[in-house]
Each structure stands twice: as C-alpha cells, then as structure tokens.
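Example 9 (inverse folding). The structure is encoded as follows.
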C-alpha cells in the first residue's frame, strides 16, 4: 500500500525525499516532488476501512451507471465550471444513482489566471478525490522548489530570507505546491465524464420547486429542473444574490497584478531565486515562482486607491502602462523584483474584491454553495481553491452517507438520497470552520498593523515581523474528512437522550 491511499504495484518506485532519487531516474518530476510512480497504478476499491459512515477513502470508482435500480437518479446541477465546479463535477459524478450536469456561462474553458497555491489542506482533499492518473499528473505539475522546501519569505527591500513556510510533519508529496490556474483546471476537467459540462449556459436564477428540488432558469429562457443545485458561480454569484440581496461586493484595497510567462523570458536574470519567494511589506506582497515545467509566474497584491482600481474593472490587460506602473511602485523593493517585471511582455490587473461570507452554505433543502460563491477570499492565505476543494469533498461525503442503494429498499419510488439530511451534514462540516477563518483574516490585520507601526526603523520592523509572522496551519492543513467524521457521529446520535448515552456509557466496557 503506497502513501497515496490506493494500492501501488510491487514494481513501482516510491521515493520520499529528492536525495534518495535513483541514479537512473528519468521520470516525471517538477522541482523534484519526492514521489515517482512508474508503471501501472490500480485503484483498489475498498481500501481505507470502508464502512457505511466513512466509505470512500482512497477509493476511486469509475463512472457508475446512472441508476442501479428502477428509480430515477438524483439530478445534480452544478452552476459554474471554475475550479470548484470542475472539482464537484468530477467527484459527484462518481457517486451512485446520480445524473450530474455543469452549466458554465463561458463558451469554452477560459485561459485565464496565474499562480494558484495548492495548500496541504487541498492536497488532502485532492488525494481522496482525484483519479490516480490526475493525482500523478498533479505531482508532476506542482512546483515545490528545486533544492529547497516550502516558500521563503524575504525582506521586502534586501531580499534576506526572514522565515520559511513549510508544514513540518508533512511528506513532500503532500506539501503545498504552486501551479497555474489553467493547468489545475485542466487536470480537474480530465476527471469529468463526457457530456457533463454544458458551456454557453448562463444561469439567470434558481427557484424552489414544490414539493422539492429547484428550477434553473437560463438567460436564454431555457428551464431545467434538478433535485440538488450546487452553486459554484464564484465571487459574483447570482445565486447568492438571490438569497442575500443586501450582500455588498467591495474593493479590498489591493490590486492583484499577475502574469505567467515562458521560463525562457526570465531565466537569463542573474540571481533569480530557484525557490518560491514572497516579499511582504505592510499588507503588500510579491510572489516569484516557477510553476509547472516551463512556466514562470509573477504575482503581486499591491495597494491602490479605489478610484484607480475602478478604472481596471473592465481592462485587465495592462500592457506597457502596467509594467511602468509596477516599476515605479516597486522601485525601492528588492531589485530582483523589477528585473522580472522588466522581462514581462504584459501584465494583467485584477482589483481584489470580496463580500461577507455566507453563514450557512445551504438553502431551500436543495441548494449547496461551494467555493468563492460562498466565501470569496480575495487572495487571503492563497487558500481559495483549498476551501473550494474541501467544500466539494464534504458535500460528496455527505451525499454518500445518505445514499440508499436500490438493493436495500424495496420501494421503487424511494429517492436514492436524503438531500436535506446530506445538506445539513455538509453545512455543519463547513460553516464553523469558515466563520473562524473569516474572523482570522481580521485578527491577522492587527499583526500587520503592529509590524507596520515600526515605520522606517528597519531593525525594529524585522524584529516585529519575526515576532508576529506565522503560518496559520489550522487553516492551511485543515482536514475536512476528519471534521466531517466528527460532525457525522454527532448528527447520527443527536436525538439520543442523555439517559440513553449515560446508560450505554455505563454498560459497555471499553471502547
Ligand atoms: C478567470 C479567472 C481567473 C482567476 N485567476 C486566479 C489567479 O490567478 N490566482 C488565484 O489565486 N485565483 C484566481 N481566480 C480565483 C480562483 O479561481 C478562486 O478563488 C477559487 O479557486 C475558487 O474557485 P470557484 O470555482 O469558486 O470560482 P471561480 O474560479 O471564480 O469560478 C466561477 C465560475 O462560474 C462561472 N459563472 C459565473 N456566473 C455564472 C452563471 N450565472 N452561470 C453559469 N456560470 C457562471 C464563471 O464563468 C466561472 O467559470 C480566478 C478566477 C477566475 C474566474
């Protein structure tokens, strides 16, 4: 049994730590990920102690027949085919007795976005959701540094490494890595069965159907019905606005300038770090990193006035004007930053916006919100996709838990899933954690303000930075499966009286 959660054939080579790579190693690697699987990988159904309450650890069934009996399948409509929607489509399609459709307003996959951080939390979810082929591909594509671990955090002016972000007890193949949004999206879409994604399908609104389910109304007048709607329509979610019409979307004070370029454009730069580096100063941040093989990424979140940010809303591609603005903005920072900026052919600019996060991620016993539609992060912790994947994983587990196989029920009319109960499990698994994260974003600003208060006293600034800078492991390594198990057990026994619990505790010896 390999560390991937599925069985690895005997002749495969699993190497932990790049120093142990075999001499004849010619296999797939990007910055040497510490794991290489050669040959054929067989998913082994049933690994990970399958049972009715936690059934699918490490199991990746193929696409199941639409129904296992005479009953109609559960119709699941996923609105939005971004990272959250694509992950939901690949994962939920592998549940039994479902008919999954994605409705995406773009006419094709959008070739957009730059660096995405895939945190340890996301790695955990993906290791349980992706097919073996996609998991292996992810290992190949993720960049984790050539000869180093984690992300180096540098002094904004001198480039001195002040601290390093690395998960101390995580093997390298589960460590955080960086990838372009396009490559990550492509990898997720590979796991989606044919004919599931419908492009050019812009959803106008959803309406509750009586007695259950939803109607989906499209911009072009079309109407579809579904038993469950998964709202994955991002920051500007129309579905969220239906339920929370007063929720405002506001500019967060920073613009994300970003550009991925071919490695050839930057590799001549003397002193270009071989790691992933971040330079931080009082709320502003620059990232420089390789991504999947052949791709280099520049990303910054720079403070800009709201007035200026407004001019960028519809003009993302900045050309020379953007480059010149960045050169001026970063003229006092570590010179390597401007060396990279000078080599960029273009830069894209996105004002970072957000809205209050949803307190509850479910509505009408038939709608589940996932990803930015529920909790737009505006770049916080680089964890947007990590939260989205945890949502999807929790939703999938919750549905699975309520599945009634046709062999266990004689009634042809019995619905294959108890959607309201599944949604309750889902909401309880996610809402407390997400509310705490939203609070932490505010708390972290207190520390940023404390460091900034050192002003131009550089020595004191560094002292305060080292004192307060911390990685929120409880966020970045959150294990959604563990949380789901905790919630599921409580929900299952929640109607038991205290008397019954005390009686059981007194009669049953041991655990
Ligand atoms: C074009 C783009 C580029 C991005 N680039 C970066 C980046 O470089 N770095 C980074 O950290 N994050 C980036 N993000 C954000 C990142 O993808 C999210 O923060 C996060 O991963 C959660 O993804 P999501 O699927 O919830 O939302 P999104 O990725 O925003 O996806 C939402 C999807 O829903 C679709 N949609 C919206 N409304 C409707 C509707 N009414 N009907 C049907 N479909 C609809 C959208 O077209 C989109 O495909 C980008 C997002 C987008 C859309």
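The amino acid assigned to each position is listed next.
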């Amino acid at each position: 049994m390999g560390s991937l959660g599925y069985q690895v054939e005997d002749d495969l080579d699993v190497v932990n730590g790049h120093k142990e790579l075999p001499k004849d190693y010619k296999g797939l690697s990007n910055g040497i990920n510490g794991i290489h699987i050669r040959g054929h990988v067989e998913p082994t159904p049933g690994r990970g102690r399958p049972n009715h309450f936690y059934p699918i650890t490490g199991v990746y069934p193929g696409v199941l027949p639409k129904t296992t009996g005479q009953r109609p399948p559960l119709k699941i409509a996923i609105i939005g085919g971004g990272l959250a929607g694509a992950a939901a489509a690949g994962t939920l399609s592998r549940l039994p007795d479902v008919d999954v459709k994605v409705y995406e307003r773009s006419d094709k996959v959008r070739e957009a976005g730059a660096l995405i951080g895939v945190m340890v939390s996301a790695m955990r979810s993906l290791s349980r959701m992706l097919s073996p082929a996609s998991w292996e591909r992810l290992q190949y594509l993720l960049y984790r540094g050539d000869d180093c671990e984690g992300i180096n955090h540098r002094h904004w002016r001198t480039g001195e490494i002040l601290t390093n972000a690395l998960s101390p007890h995580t093997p390298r193949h589960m460590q955080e890595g960086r990838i372009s949004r396009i490559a990550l999206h492509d990898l997720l879409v590979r796991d989606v069965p044919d004919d599931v994604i419908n492009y050019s399908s812009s959803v106008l609104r959803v309406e509750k159907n009586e007695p259950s389910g939803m109607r989906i109304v499209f911009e072009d007048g079309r109407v579809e019905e579904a038993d469950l709607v998964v709202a994955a329509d991002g920051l500007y979610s129309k579905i969220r606005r239906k339920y929370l019409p007063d929720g405002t979307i506001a500019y967060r004070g920073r613009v994300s300038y970003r550009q991925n370029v071919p490695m050839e454009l930057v590799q001549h730069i003397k002193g270009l770090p071989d790691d992933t580096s971040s330079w931080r100063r009082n709320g502003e941040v620059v990232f420089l990193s390789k991504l999947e093989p052949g791709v280099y990424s520049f990303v910054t979140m720079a403070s800009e006035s709201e007035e200026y940010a407004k001019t960028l809303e519809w003009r993302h591609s900045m050309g020379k004007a953007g480059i010149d603005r960045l050169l001026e903005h970063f003229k006092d920072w570590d010179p390597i930053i401007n060396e990279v900026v000078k080599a960029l052919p273009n830069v894209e600019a996105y004002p970072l916006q957000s809205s209050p996060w949803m307190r509850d991620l479910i509505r009408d016993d038939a709608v589940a919100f996932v990803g930015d539609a529920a909790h737009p992060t505006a770049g916080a912790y680089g964890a947007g996709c990590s939260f989205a994947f945890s949502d999807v994983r929790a939703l999938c587990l919750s549905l699975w838990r309520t599945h009634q196989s046709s062999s266990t029920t004689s009634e042809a009319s019995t619905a294959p899933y108890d959607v309201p109960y599944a949604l309750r499990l889902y909401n309880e698994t996610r809402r407390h954690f997400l509310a705490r994260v939203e609070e932490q974003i505010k708390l972290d600003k207190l520390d940023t303000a404390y460091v900034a208060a050192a002003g131009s006293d550089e020595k004191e600034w560094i002292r305060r930075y080292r004192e307060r800078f911390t990685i929120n492991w409880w966020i970045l390594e959150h294990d959604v499966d563990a949380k789901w198990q905790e919630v599921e057990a409580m929900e299952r026994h929640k109607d038991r009286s205290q008397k019954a619990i005390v009686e059981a505790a007194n009669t049953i010896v041991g655990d």
